[in-house]
Amino acid sequence: MSERLAPGATVGILGGGQLGRMLAMAAAKLGLRARVFAPEADSPAFQVSENPVCAPFEDIAALRQFAGDCGVVTYEFENVPAHSLAVIEELRLVCPPRRALVSAQDRLAERRLLQACQMPHADFEFVAEAGALEPAFAALRGRGHITAYLKKLRQGYDGKGQVHLKDDEDIAAAQDWLGREAAILEAAVPFLFECSVIAARSRHGDIVCYEPARNTHTHGILSESRVPSGLPERLIADAFAMTRAIMERLDYVGVIGVEMFAIGGSEPESLVINEIAPRVHNSGHWTLEACMVSQFENHIRAVAGWPLGSPERHSDARMVNLIGDEVDNWAALLAEAPRRSLHLYGKAETRPGRKMGHYCDLTPLNHPPSAES
Amino acid sequence: MSERLAPGATVGILGGGQLGRMLAMAAAKLGLRARVFAPEADSPAFQVSENPVCAPFEDIAALRQFAGDCGVVTYEFENVPAHSLAVIEELRLVCPPRRALVSAQDRLAERRLLQACQMPHADFEFVAEAGALEPAFAALRGRGHITAYLKKLRQGYDGKGQVHLKDDEDIAAAQDWLGREAAILEAAVPFLFECSVIAARSRHGDIVCYEPARNTHTHGILSESRVPSGLPERLIADAFAMTRAIMERLDYVGVIGVEMFAIGGSEPESLVINEIAPRVHNSGHWTLEACMVSQFENHIRAVAGWPLGSPERHSDARMVNLIGDEVDNWAALLAEAPRRSLHLYGKAETRPGRKMGHYCDLTPLNHPPSAES
Predict the structure, then answer these.
(1) Which of B192, B197, B196 is nearest to B263 (CA)?
(2) What is the pLDDT of residue B227?
(3) Residues of chain B with CATH 3.40.50.20
């Protein structure tokens, strides 16, 4: 194991979006230097760090040079090529470990991991090519499922890379969409709501779990996360146990985000894992305001070999994403709520579906829910 | 009045220490770009901002170029030369206004400002040159004061630039120390404790005041700030009223720090103003953890022409500075208190008396005081 980083050492971050930006600021808070490697010249994280490297992830020489300048290297999103991590691993510790990235990059590998950990997950069939779709759908329906999601194995996030199959008439269009790619066909799980656990594991194996947040999506993109989630204590304990088991199996170091569906009748009765993100997560942004040590700081502490901070929260919280031109409303959002914390990501161009910022409102712990809750 | 800055616009910051660093990060949180101008190549604020300018404050061409690249310019400490601000003012709005800087740079001007605002302050005599010291001390003692502080007019901070006169035998040494400089001789105020109000005033004249913190110094340097301060409600109202009056007289924009002495027998009965800092202030660092909108964010909001955020706090707080080699203890400080928030400033060299970082601990509001309190 590499030595613990000393203050003044450099944390390398692959990826320059808002997650990299908030990681860089968390590193700076702790007296560490952040160095960002990203292909886009206008990467938001470049604005808050020194000597960024603007190069493609396929540039082996640039990766090697970057690794040599860093004490440890981490990444802000799961679509960094695994072979880029392999190049860096020859020179420096990479956290979270490459095996976690590989599992997250391939939906089949992710499902295999969940099976190996004996985690509840949606029933699915592997679809090796378009011709295998029809029998796969029939098999799922034979096991009692009504509709299903066809998900390409790679590059899925924010609802991209998947289509919903409701009946046989959808099959032909889905086959065209799939083309020559492989996929999984996953039974649609009728769930009450989505929630997610953000957790951190240190280099020494200590684990802290932030309380699950309850997530709402609009057009497949996270729009809101709030704590408390409404999960009963028993299911919160289940969620933590599942998250811990996954981290331990992967010998994970850093922050992970585990999305789960709450299943049941009128009340949540059990949990099913939806997806694993081997990185800081949008649904954990509330930890910046509601906790003494945020997901970003705990990620940096973990990868630097430092002790983790408490995930305890001092307030209830509601985080709202600003997607696309919703960000144009920033001034009114600030003026209407003086206690509101606003984050804008420094992105030059507003595009539909693009995460431009977020805000967070706090209320005291155990405050009676407001009328809209 | 200049227009409100749009997200993506640049806030120029003169000075590159830890205050500039935390201002730069607050600007980034809000989607503004921070650009730092400082003479020292290893300025901590350079690490968290883009395209810093490393040049002396006397470099007129560099100042002009810098001003042209910024939407508004502010400063992180009061020893920026006033003529440097004047150069920038020809091109861009400067906040806080130069008159506030000038008052803070000269102890006599500061005393005149307090007199003009009819603010309570320590009795004093102007000492134009060393020979005037003896009659000044005699005059103060004639008005019932026992000891006094001789304070040079300029460059005083962290207890520098002052000596304590206890009796006539101290006069000769003080005259040697003063040399050819002017000074004020200020009656020593017997106070219960020092406290400070951090407040922000927007471009539109709105003012928010953070609750006073109670400050403890060691060897003339702030070692600890805590809220609540122990001031009764009546004196908190007085402290806010005095701070508001000073800001209004200066037509101030940005964050100000006003240090006060609490005077009385066993309980605080009144307040005397000690010093005014036209900038974010060390004794306001607790606002980063205990408030939704910190002093740094409110300073940036004010100078950018944005609405101010609430100064309300959600927790009690204790901020402790890490001075000189105290910072070497960082790992134990983190390990012993998982809920602790640690800030290290990225300074390469540890020197005695140098502020290297700080930490903040929170407790729930109105928590019974611990044994050490």
Answers:
(1) B192
(2) 98
(3) 10-94
Interface of A with B in 146-175 (CB under 8 A): none
Is B313 an interface residue toward A (CB < 8 Å)? no
Sign of torsion over alpha carbons A135, A139, A144, A149 = negative
Among A310, A334, A345, the residue with its CB nearest the CB of B307 is A334
Residues of A in contact with B4 (CB under 8 A): 331
Residue B293 touches chain A, beta carbons under 8 Å: yes
Nearest to B96 by CA among B225, B235, B279, B230: B279
DSSP H helix total and E strand total for chain B: 11, 17
Report yes or no: B194 and B176 within 8 Å, Cβ to Cβ. no
Helices (H), B250-346: 287-290, 295-304, 330-336
Does any CB of chain A come closer than 8 Å to the CB of residue B362?
yes
- Give the ranges where B117-253 is alpha helix by DSSP (H): 133-142, 171-178, 233-249
Nearest neighbour of B50 by CB, restricted to A21, A47, A335: A47
Q: How far apart are the first and last CA of chain A?
A: 47
Q: Does B332 touch chain A (CB under 8 A)?
A: no
Q: Looking at the predicted structure, is the pLDDT value of residue A369 above 80?
A: no
Distance CA B156, CA A366 (A): 48
- Contact flag B48-A48 (C-beta cutoff 8 Å): yes
- Helix (H) or strand (E) holding A302, with range, is helix A295-304
Token code pair at residue B177: 């120390």
- Residue from A83, A104, A86 nearest A94 by CA: A86
Going by C-alpha positions, the residue among A89, A74, A117 that lies closest to residue A258 is A117
Beta bridge partners of A163: A150
| pLDDT one-digit tens code per residue, A76-119 | 998 899 999 999 999 999 999 999 999 999 999 999 999 999 99
Domain with CATH 3.30.470.20 in chain A: 193-364
DSSP helix/strand/coil, A99: helix
Contact A50, A77 (CB under 8 A): no
The whole-angstrom separation of Cα B300 and Cα A340 is 15
Q: What is the pLDDT of residue B160?
A: 72
Chain region(s) in chain B for CATH 3.30.1490.20: 123-187
Q: Is B175 strand, coil or helix?
A: helix
For B23, the enclosing helix (H) or strand (E) is helix B18-29
Which CATH topology does B193-364 take?
A: D-amino Acid Aminotransferase; Chain A, domain 1 (3.30.470)
Say how many residues make up chain B.
Answer: 373
Name residue A200's amino acid: A
Report the CATH number of the A123-187 domain: 3.30.1490.20
Distance from CA of A161 to the nearest CA of B (A): 30
Average pLDDT of chain A, as a whole number? 94
Q: pLDDT tens digits for B317-339?
A: 999 999 999 999 999 999 999 99
Count of CB atoms situated within 10 Å of the CB of B38: 25
Distance CA A119, CA A239 (A): 10
Q: Is B9 on the interface with A (CB under 8 A)?
A: no
Q: Is A64 exposed, middle or buried (0-12, 13-18, 19+ CB in 10 A)?
A: middle
With cut-offs at 50, 70 and 90, classify the pLDDT of residue A158.
low
Fold of B10-94: Rossmann fold (3.40.50)
b/e A177-206 (16+ beta carbons within 10 angstroms → b): bbeeebbbbbbbeebbebbbbbbbbbbeee
Torsions phi, psi of A88, nearest 5?
-70, -40
Q: What was the ipTM of the complex prediction? A: 0.94
Cα–Cα distance measured from residue A337 to residue A320, given in angstroms and rounded to the nearest whole number: 13
Cα distances (angstroms) measured from residue B257 to each of A321, B288, B299: 34, 15, 11
Residues of chain B contacting residue A49, judged by C-beta atoms under 8 Å apart: 47-48
Strand duo B213-218 + A221-227: pairing: unpaired
Residue of A nearest to B311 (CA): A339
